[in-house]
Specification:
The chain is an alpha/beta fold and about 350 residues long. It is built from 14 helices and 8 strands. This is Cell division protein ZapE.
Length: about 350
C-alpha cells in the first residue's frame, strides 16, 4: 500500500485566504479565559489573566480607550490609554492560551497570527496592501514576537505604527530564554528597545512559571526503526511518511506561508532518517513547519535521530537560539502525542 507523502503536495494559497486564515490555530480554537488555570504557585499568572480580561473589555468598548492599566497597577489618576498589551515570559506558561482567549473575547473584525505568519502576510500582499486590509480590524494578536531579525522587526514595528495609528489594538507575546528567566524583564526590555518608537503604546505584563509541556514528563521518545515507522504510518488513516532529506528539500521550494496548507488534513507525520539540520536555512524552515504542526496538533514520529537533536549545539548558541528551543519544545510534545496514539 502506498503511503501519502508531504513531498507530493504543492499547495497554493491566495492573498484573500491568507488574511482569512489569520485566526487562532485548532489547538487554541476552543480556549477561553475560563479555561485558563493559573498555577497557584505563580501569582503572576492570575494577574496576567486579569490584565488580559481588562484589555479585552477595552478592545470591545473601542475608542475612547479604556484605562485598563489603572486597575492593574493601582492609583487614582487615570493611566495613559495604551492600545498595546505585551505578555512577557518563558516557554509553556500559557501566554498563547491567554492571547487566543483575548482574541476570542472581542468582536471582529480581528486577526491572529504568529510574528512569522505576519511577516509572510506582508511579503505576500505587499506593505501597503497589508496595512489597507488590517487597518479596518479591531484587534491584531501576534504570538511569538521575534527580535532576532532586525529587518523583520523594523518591518513589523512600522506596520504596528500604521495600524495603531488607525485605531487597531495590538496584543503580543514573546519568550524569555530559559537561562534568562532570573533576570527580570529581559525579553520585555528587548521588545521595548527594538520597537522604541512604539514602546509607549504597550503595557507589559509578566507571566512566570515552568514549561507546562515538560512538567513531570520524560525527554523526547526514542526514534523507532525504519520498518516500525513504516508500519505505524500504514496503520493510521491520513498519515504521511517522508524521507527527512526529501522533505527538507521540498520545504525549500515552498513559500513558508504555504506550510499550514501543506499539513492540512494530515493526521500524523512520520519522518524517516531524521538528523541535525545541515544549515541555518533548513533549520529555520523546520522551525516554521514545527509551528504549523503544533498549531494543528499533528503527532510526529521519527526514525534516525531524536527530535531533540534536530539543531546542532552551534545553532543553539547562535542568534536564533530562541526559535530552535521553541521548536524542540513543541516537536517533543508532538512526539509524545505520537507515542500515546
Amino acid at each position: 500500500m502506498s503511503i501519502p507523502r508531504l513531498t507530493d503536495r504543492a499547495p497554493v494559497v491566495g492573498a484573500d485566504e491568507l488574511v482569512a486564515a489569520m485566526t487562532p490555530p485548532p489547538r487554541f480554537g476552543a480556549v477561553r479565559f475560563d479555561t485558563y488555570l493559573p498555577n497557584p504557585d505563580e501569582p503572576s499568572q492570575a494577574a496576567a489573566l486579569a490584565a488580559c480580561r481588562g484589555f479585552a473589555e477595552g478592545v470591545a468598548a473601542g475608542p475612547p480607550r479604556r484605562s485598563w492599566l489603572r486597575s492593574l497597577f493601582g492609583g487614582t489618576d487615570p493611566a495613559p490609554a495604551q492600545p498595546g498589551l505585551y505578555l512577557d515570559g518563558g516557554f509553556g506558561v500559557g501566554k498563547t492560551h491567554l492571547l487566543a482567549s483575548l482574541w476570542h473575547a472581542v468582536p471582529g473584525p480581528k486577526s491572529y497570527g504568529t510574528f512569522v505568519e505576519l511577516t509572510h502576510l506582508v511579503g505576500a500582499l505587499g506593505f501597503a496592501e497589508a496595512v489597507h486590509r488590517l487597518s479596518t480590524h479591531r484587534l491584531l494578536a501576534i504570538d511569538e514576537f521575534e527580535l532576532d531579525d532586525p529587518g523583520d522587526t523594523m518591518l513589523v514595528t512600522r506596520l504596528l505604527s500604521e495600524l495603531t495609528g488607525a485605531g487597531v489594538f495590538v496584543a503580543a507575546t514573546s519568550n524569555t530564554l530559559p537561562d534568562k528567566l532570573g533576570e527580570g524583564r529581559f525579553a520585555a526590555d528587548d521588545f521595548l528597545r527594538e520597537i522604541h518608537a512604539m514602546s509607549s503604546r504597550f503595557g507589559v505584563v509578566r507571566v512566570d512559571g515552568p514549561d507546562y509541556r515538560h512538567r513531570g514528563l520524560p525527554d523526547a521518545p526514542e526514534p523507532v526503526s525504519d520498518d516500525e515507522l513504516t508500519r505505524r504510518a500504514a496503520g493510521i488513516g491520513g498519515a504521511t511518511l517522508d524521507d527527512f532529506d526529501d522533505l527538507c528539500a521540498h520545504l525549500g521550494r515552498l513559500h513558508p506561508s504555504r506550510y499550514g496548507r501543506l499539513v492540512q488534513g494530515v493526521t500524523a507525520v512520520h519522518l524517516r532518517g531524521v538528523h541535525a539540520a545541515p544549515d541555518q536555512d533548513v533549520a529555520l524552515r523546520l522551525v516554521v513547519l514545527a509551528d504549523r504542526l503544533y498549531d494543528a496538533a499533528i503527532p510526529v514520529a521519527v526514525s534516525g535521530a531524536s527530535l531533540s537533536a534536530l539543531f546542532t549545539e552551534e545553532m543553539l548558541r547562535g542568534g536564533y537560539r530562541k526559535k530552535y528551543l521553541r521548536a524542540v519544545s513543541r516537536l517533543v510534545a508532538l512526539s509524545r502525542d505520537a507515542v500515546r496514539a
